[in-house]
Amino acid sequence: MTKDSDLKQQFYDVVIVGGGMVGAAQAVALVKQQKRVLVIEKTIPDASVLQQTPLRVSAINLASEKYLSALGIWPHINQSSKCMFNQLATWEQRHKPLVFSAEDIGTEHLGHLVKNEALQLAAFDEINALGQNNLEIMTGCKINKIEQTNEQATLFVSDMRNDKTNTNSNTNSNTINCSLLIGADGAFSQVRSLSDIGTTGWDYQQHCLSLTIKTEFPTQHITWQEFQPSGPKAFLPLEDGYSVLIWYDQASQVKELSELSNEQLKAQVLKRFPALVGEFDVVAKAAFPLTRRQANQYVKGRVVLVGDSAHTINPLAGQGVNIGYKDVEELSKLLAEVDMSERAALFQALSKYEKTRKRESLIMSAAMDSFYSLFSNNKTAMKLVRTGLLNLANKFEWAKKQVLKKAVGY
Ligand SMILES: Cc1cc2nc3c(=O)[nH]c(=O)nc-3n(C[C@H](O)[C@H](O)[C@H](O)COP(=O)(O)OP(=O)(O)OC[C@H]3O[C@@H](n4cnc5c(N)ncnc54)[C@H](O)[C@@H]3O)c2cc1C
């Protein structure tokens, strides 16, 4: 952490709150534009986390992979933290699968499943490799207030460790000024709430349970999802004999399941999942509520939101962080030529960002909702529609290709 005394009255081109997968990638992009950047992150995981049992993984599509490669982040992800998939299958329980292959669109693969921490750490590795002195990282601090004037945004922060023993936080308070404040601090964004930006959204009735399994079968390069009346069941392959199963169900059911032992969960998986190709053991679990949330504004004066702080969508089609990387790409492209002290140019770039990204993420959210209602619905009419759609896609190569291109971000 940068020393408190160093930060008093500092001025940065950009302050990014949140150095998760999206915020850390945003930092790389802006540091490469020679902007003076400060990242404020609660804690940056130690690299040893990558040796532990994987729990949170994301399907990274081809478009994100391309962008992360261009930023120099992708090469830092080691082989055992990512697993390539070249097939993607989906089907309605007891119906014929619709299988998408990389060859359908002339690519070598369709994407990778990557450990979340590996994506985050790869961005910090690239920052270290750059060895530039225009980036600072601050951890373990609390943001108390955000203010804006025509000239700057100001954060009032205090050291959390001192806060525990000292109730008078003003004595430890630092003021950080910047031309642009980026909120990349996730679904419960403090930047968003301290900037008085409201949200619109709801909680889905379904929650999901993520189960890490240790397998005895070789690495699979296919990811699949079976639609069942109670909610989808999905398989995500990983390396080193691990895979992740995702179990969508009613909130109460997910709660009950998450209280079971690993052995009991294995028995449930054998009962409720399609047959896996070999022996396995459940080794870790985590339950997540599913929420749809959109920030009412992506930009407010000198504050801009990226990633989950701007939007969270149903993870059904694994698009959340991919949309976040699109935010980073668009914002970075628009800021590339901007002199951060030029208010008019900066505000013009921010307004373009909001227009483009809000539209795209609303379209994606709506698509996920239609998908969710179509596939999480047990009404006969809906069942007929979805079986018909899957059959149609199976018959018409052109339609199948279009769906696949959308999924990989092309
Ligand atoms: C079950 C599940 C499965 C998913 N699967 C996929 C998938 O397959 N593919 C996909 O694309 N997406 C998937 N997603 C969505 C994806 O996880 C999110 O979109 C992604 O985590 C968003 O990244 P982010 O960096 O914006 O936010 P986060 O990952 O939430 O990171 C926010 C960062 O900000 C930091 N922070 C927060 N508050 C503060 C503060 N006050 N001060 C300093 N730092 C702060 C946090 O420590 C964290 O590092 C899934 C989501 C769920 C729930």
Offer a concise description of the structure.
The protein is of the alpha+beta class and 410 residues long.
Structure characterization notes:
The chain is of the alpha+beta class and about 400 residues long. It is about 35% helix and about 30% strand. The chain contains 12 helices and 19 strands. α2 packs parallel to α4 and α9 packs antiparallel against α10. The two termini are about 40 Å apart. The site of flavin-adenine dinucleotide has 30 residues, from α2, β2, β3, β12 and α9.
The CATH fourth-level homologous superfamily of the largest domain: FAD/NAD(P)-binding domain
Our estimate of the beta-strand percent is 25-35%
Percentage of residues assigned to helices: 25-40%
Distance between the termini: 39 Å
Number of distinct helices: 12
Radius of gyration computed on alpha carbons? 22 Å
The CATH class of the largest domain turns out to be Alpha Beta
Class from secondary-structure proportions: alpha+beta
Q: Mind describing the biggest β-sheet?
A: 8 strands, mixed
Low-confidence stretches: 1-5, 163-171
What value does the average pLDDT take? 88
- State the domain count: 2
- CATH architecture of the largest domain, by name, is 3-Layer(bba) Sandwich
- Fold-level CATH name of the largest domain: FAD/NAD(P)-binding domain
- Give the overall shape: globular
The hetero molecules present are:
flavin-adenine dinucleotide
Number of strands: 19
